[in-house]
Amino acid sequence: MSRSVRPVLLAGLAAITVLAAAPLIAQTKPAAKQAQTHPPAKAAPVPAAKLGLGREALPEEIKAWDIAVRPDGKGLPPGKGTVKQGDEIFQAQCASCHGEFGQGNNRWPVLAGGMGSLKSDRPEKTIGSFWPDLSTVFDYVRRAMPYGNAQSLSPDELYAVTAYLLYLNDIVKDEDFELSDKNFTSVKLPNAAAFYDDDRETTEKAFWGKEPCMSNCKPEVKITGRAAVLDVTPDSKSAPKVD
After folding, report:
1. Is 200 within 8 Å of 119 (Cβ atoms)?
2. φ, ψ for residue 81 (rounded to 5)?
3. CB under 8 Å to 136, separation ≥6 — which residues?
């Protein structure tokens, strides 16, 4: 074979090889592009196996815990009770801690009195002087009282005790007054109007500066009040040595 024919033959074989491989390249390119634009879906996570502990709560069990009472009366159970009935229950199950007239024995909470004391040095935050809603009284007594025997009072007894607490705070005057789920929301506590929604976003907005003052913020600092002087802090810079 002459030297001039050999290069031509080799070039022809190379061209045939390229043409034979072209369909394969053409077939593989779309698949590669599709793999880039549509990645394979991830396998769904396998749910964790249950531990096999406990069980779902029964409807009656949920109902036993779902006893919240709202200020609008939602959650109140049907029932009624008078001041006189509440007096008897209170003396038997509550007075040992709270006192016969709600004055509080020893260090147990005071429930009555304290009217007009909230701005004094020793405010009395009782039902009549401080609490905003009667539902708070009913709900707390229902959940936590009598102490050591919580949730033992029937709905009628709860209404009666709440009525007696209203009587102790001079909110109702008649010993025959009967409190029930029907007239509950009509009773308003004296300090209800003093409670309002948190308004700091508007009333304190002026104090929320982006650049807080870090020096010379006040022309003068004055001490306006002191705790009880116990003479336990030495005036000198160095404290006496302790052996």
Report:
1. no
2. -165, 145
3. 71
pLDDT digits (tens, 9 = 90+) for 26-60: 444 444 455 456 666 778 888 888 888 999 999 99
Q: pTM of this prediction?
A: 0.64
At 237, phi and psi to the nearest 5?
Answer: -70, -25
Maximum alpha-carbon separation in the chain: 134
Sign of CA dihedral 136, 141, 143, 145: positive
Q: Tell me if 65 sits within 8 A of 71, measured CB to CB.
A: no
Closest CA to 194 of 136, 146, 129, 143: 129
| Interval 200-208 mean pLDDT | 82
Please check whether residue 162 is in contact with residue 83, taking contact to mean a CB–CB distance below 8 angstroms.
Answer: no
Cα–Cα distance, 143 to 176 (Å, whole number): 26
Q: Which residues contact 125 (CB under 8 A, 6 or more apart)?
A: 114, 118, 131
Looking at the DSSP assignment, which residues form a beta bridge with residue 81? 179
